[in-house]
Design brief:
246 residues, alpha/beta, two-stranded antiparallel ribbon, 14 strands
Length: 246
């Protein structure tokens, strides 16, 4: 693999969640340390970033935070420089977690966020190439996979809204006909100026931020359908992940 990404890029792995869908493991452990073929989800995502030269990684912790911190220290960050963003007082979800980690992420370069329970082989070089070419505020991976909640895009891949196909709920940021629904891959590239634009506070999801900012700033979906992607959200999805990720 000939990966070109700048080693100056930083990344954040969201690992603070309670993992309620992943019981009984999460009754005594954080989901981030659940094993897929002998490697934890956290180790796998850290090594995924290393393939692209990214070794400065922020990990947020809440549920069984001490176990994650201990694993990082024992394994010397699996070869990366891992900084902990401590949310033991209150879990802040993805948006609040990102804001709390602002001092650890902010710089002149774009930065990447991942969810610890998503395994994918999305090519980060190609995502960065797409982002550099189109110059949006935010670019994130999307696919045509089946799910219950979708982001809605126009013909130029610009985010225009969100839809829950189970409940019928919709949130529209830009009203346009003929929007296409695509599934969120939870791999995101942000421009650093996003921190000054986020209006939400406290505990909130990045979905709220995307839909709020999409009215005024280009947020683009990078379609990487055909790549491997497994949401290891439930215990039964471990076998699915193990079949795809050695």
């Amino acid at each position: 693999m000939n990966h070109q990404l700048s080693t100056g890029l930083r990344a954040m792995i969201f690992a603070a969640g309670l993992g309620t869908r992943f019981k009984p493991w999460t009754d005594k452990h954080p989901k981030a340390l659940a094993l897929v073929n002998g490697k934890s989800l956290l180790q796998r995502n850290i090594e995924y970033l290393q393939q692209y030269g990214i070794r400065d990684v922020v990990v947020n912790v809440h549920h069984y935070a001490d176990q994650i911190i201990d694993a990082v220290e024992t394994n010397k960050g699996w070869g990366s420089r891992v900084l902990i963003s401590d949310e033991t007082d209150a879990v802040l979800e993805t948006g609040g977690g990102l804001l709390k980690a602002r001092p650890l992420l902010e710089g002149k370069d774009p930065f990447i966020t991942l969810n610890v329970d998503i395994l994918t082989n999305l090519n980060l070089d190609k995502l960065l190439e797409f982002h550099t070419k189109h110059k949006p505020l935010i670019s994130f991976g999307v696919t045509s996979r089946q799910t219950s909640r979708y982001f809605l895009f126009d013909a130029d891949d610009r985010l225009c809204g969100w839809r829950n196909v189970k409940t019928g709920e919709e949130k529209i940021s830009i009203n346009k006909p003929g929007l296409t629904q695509k599934a969120y891959s939870c791999v995101v590239l942000f421009q650093p100026e996003v921190f000054g634009l986020i209006r939400q506070q406290g505990k909130f999801s990045l979905t709220e931020t995307y839909l709020d900012l999409a009215k005024d700033y280009p947020i683009l979906g990078y379609d990487h359908s055909g790549d491997k992607l497994v949401d290891v959200g439930k215990p039964e999805s471990v076998a699915v992940a193990e079949a795809q990720f050695a």
